[in-house]
Amino acid sequence: MSITTEHIEKVYYAFRKAQSDHFGRGFRMPKSFEKHFNNKFKEQNKKKLIKITGNFLTKWQNIDPYQYFLCGFELFGKNFSYMKFMQEKILLLYKNKDKNKKREIRVTKQGLVDSAFFVKRYMRKYGLSSLDDYIHKTEGNRKVAVEHYLKNKIDASFFVYLLGKGMILTDNERCDIPYIQTNFRKLKFNLEDLKDFLIKMGEKING
Predict the structure, then answer these.
(1) 127 torsion bin: left (phi>0), alpha (psi -120 to 50), beta (else)
(2) Which one of 2, 26, 132, 199 is most buried, counting C-beta atoms within 10 A?
């Protein structure tokens, strides 16, 4: 596969975006990347950027450039530059992070499946026609979803999924779920990789 300027620009953008996010500062792309690349880049930096672009297009095509560069900045900080693009330790860190992420997702998926199965049976038993009915149903002063979570009938990821579907908690209910309050962002982040799965799951629960 031939490496085009457009390919190189995408990788350069991923590098600058990772740099910006790591250090918490903004950045601007050049108006004409091709001119910038041809006239402003040092020859050795051109070669490094072209080489890593080729890797992302071939043997590293399953690697996310942005996440790869984030690993580079995590390891080298402000010293991460073109000359360090191909450091083996960056690839190792990326692979370890990717494995851990996939492991978390697998666990989340299983918890979602088990939780959805339980909720589906509960809805049938009590004549609830939709998931919306479930998230608004209460027992006493507490939503049944909170009760089910506290009794380990539904897991934390599924509970966050319900929040995303419109379940609103009272202050007292929030106090009952300290783990979710503390880990909400992480749980929500894991769910973002399962959008298609969640759509199908919701259809099965409501079907």
Answers:
(1) left
(2) 132
